[in-house]
Specification:
This protein is an alpha+beta fold and 107 residues long. 40% of the residues lie in helices and 18% in strands. The radius of gyration is 20 Å and the shape is elongated. Keywords: Glycosyltransferase, Transferase.
C-alpha cells in the first residue's frame, strides 16, 4: 500500500510552497526513503514499540543467521542496554502448561 502512495506523496511534497527538510515515517513507511533521497530530504523512521522489538526486527535483516534459532548464542544486541539470548526464547517457559490448556480449549 505504501508503495502505491509514493507518486501521490512525491507530487504533494513538490507542490508545497516551502519545501520540507526531512521525511519522518513510521517503521512501515521506510519504502519512501528512496523518495527522500530523490528530493534531498533527511530521512527518519520512528518506532513506538520497545527497543527490544526494534532490535530483533532490524538487526537480523542486516545480519542473517544460519541454522536454527536455538543454535544462536545471542539473537541480537541492543547497544548500551543488553543482549537477547536465544537460550531463553523457546525453552524454560514456566507457563507452557497454561498455553497448552488454552490451546486445547479453543479446539
Amino acid at each position: 500500500m505504501m508503495r502505491h502512495s509514493i507518486p501521490n506523496l512525491r507530487s504533494a511534497i513538490s507542490a508545497l510552497p516551502t519545501p520540507p527538510t526531512a521525511l519522518v515515517v513510521d517503521i512501515f513507511g521506510t519504502k519512501t526513503f528512496p523518495l527522500g533521497d530523490e528530493l534531498g530530504l533527511l530521512k527518519y523512521a520512528f518506532d513506538t514499540t520497545t527497543a527490544w522489538f526494534l532490535a530483533t526486527a532490524v538487526y537480523r535483516l542486516e545480519n542473517p543467521a544460519r541454522g536454527t534459532l536455538l543454535s544462536l548464542e545471542i539473537i541480537c544486541e541492543v547497544s548500551l542496554f543488553f543482549s537477547i539470548s536465544a537460550a531463553g526464547v523457546a525453552q524454560n517457559r514456566r507457563n507452557q502448561h497454561c498455553l497448552r490448556r488454552a490451546y486445547d480449549r479453543q479446539q
